[in-house]
Amino acid sequence: MGEEDTAELDQNSYNGGEDSSKVLTLPTVLTLGRVAAVPILVATFYVDCWWGRTATTSIFIAAAITDWLDGYIARKMRLGSAFGAFLDPVADKLMVAATLILLCTKPMDAVVFGPVPWLVTVPSIAIIGREITMSAVREWAASQNGKLSKAVAVNSLGKWKTATQMIALTILLASRDSSFERLLPPGIGLLYVSAGLSIWSLVVYMRQIVRVLLKKK
Q1: Where are the transmembrane segments (predicted)?
Q2: N or C: which end of the chain has fewer CB within 10 A?
Q3: Strand ranges, E, within the chain
Q4: Which CATH number fits the domain 5-216, given the four candidates 1.20.120, 1.10.357, 1.10.10, 1.20.950?
């Protein structure tokens, strides 16, 4: 889910520049657009025809692109804001969580795997659970001291997790169309890779926090 996506992908980075006090900067408007797109994604997902499936996949791809674009603009044009830094991971988590839940409500017929209703549910629980846990941990770390904040700072493992997650969800949404159904097995496989990276990165962050806490004693 997106990850702690402002941290992991440095999107809507808060750089403390002269525009940091503004609320509706261009990157923030793009982020608000992702939030507004979530109910549209849900609505099109249940439109059982080719254009509904195409629209759902297109919305998710557009959200993934703007997720990168808002951070790029914020950094290059120094338009980062405190509000944008707060809203960006919220928008990412809403989009990813909504997509995972939607995929769980309409299990796909994966011939290779057979009738396995929990095929998407298991990695979805792992990913969403990890995101909720990390959000709480980061909030707590921010209220403590600088060393704890550094312990949960972005690492390459989290970035790989986010990348595989976005690609997997795009493939799974696209594979609902019969023209792309052959992509379903690799899409599911990639989702499990993302879930594994999610749990692994959580363990890494927790170990770093424990080390900091033990040094304080």
Answers
A1: 183-206
A2: C
A3: none
A4: 1.20.120
